[in-house]
Amino acid sequence: MLKEIVIAFQSWSEAHRFIRQHKLWKWILIPGIIYTALFAVGIYFFVTSANGAVSWASDQMRIESWLQQKRSEWLSFFFVMMGMMLRLILVLFYFSLFKYLILIIGSPVFAYLSEKTEAIIENKEHSFNWKELRKDAARSIRMALRNCLWQTLYLFGLVIMCLLPIIGWITPVIALFLECYYYGFSMLDFSFARNKFTPQQSIQFIGRHKGLAIGNGMLFYFMHTVIIFAPAYAIVAATLSFHKVKNS
Questions:
Q1: For residues 187 and 169, what is the distance between their CA atoms, to the nearest angstrom?
Q2: I need a labelling partner for 69 at 20 to 30 A (CA). Which of 49, 113, 188, 232 fits?
Q3: Residues sharing a CB contact under 8 Å with residue 172, sequence separation 6 or more, in sequence order
Q4: How many CA atoms does the CB half-sphere of 106 hold within 13 Å?
Q5: Residues 53-72 pLDDT 10s
Q6: pTM
Q7: What are phi and psi of 37, to 5 degrees?
């Protein structure tokens, strides 16, 4: 798995050279501007609502007054940490749903970009086929919804787990790895669809090559330092890394 994570990391650096060399910037910038605007607005409102939800739950359970009665620094510390972990999990949950929404809305563009990338890699003339593109996009939407469902179920389990002292403090790390795995999987699925993998074959392939999904997802998070490039770079990098593994 470590080798595949390294391949995914290398593919991201190659993606930058590939995009620049083949003048794919319009396919990076247009989705990126839309993604950045929606993300900025969405994260502001969700962070505000997540803080309000945690504070409301705390007030309803009268945790603050109970802690004042107990006058225990350790109990106060544990509940502060629990609140922090819960807020982090909720923000990650929002981010997860937001990413899948972008995948679904942008699936035709992402499918086209993945198709064009593979055509350039294999020195083939790229011909636009709307029927095939629509078919691949629809297939990737179904897989994104499937991944979103499984990830949501796991995240609900992590919300419960984060209420446990000490053990709950690692839940954001687990949630982050789940995010990386399932989002990387969804990005790779554009290549799987074009190569005529059935959904079951895609799941089996990722089961054998988890590192590709995790590595791609990790670098998707890293690219949020320059957020505008994140989604399209992830598509190009996922296509490059799948091509390497497929040929090996």
A1: 29
A2: 49
A3: 85, 88, 89, 92, 162
A4: 24
A5: 777 777 777 776 766 676 76
A6: 0.70
A7: -65, -45
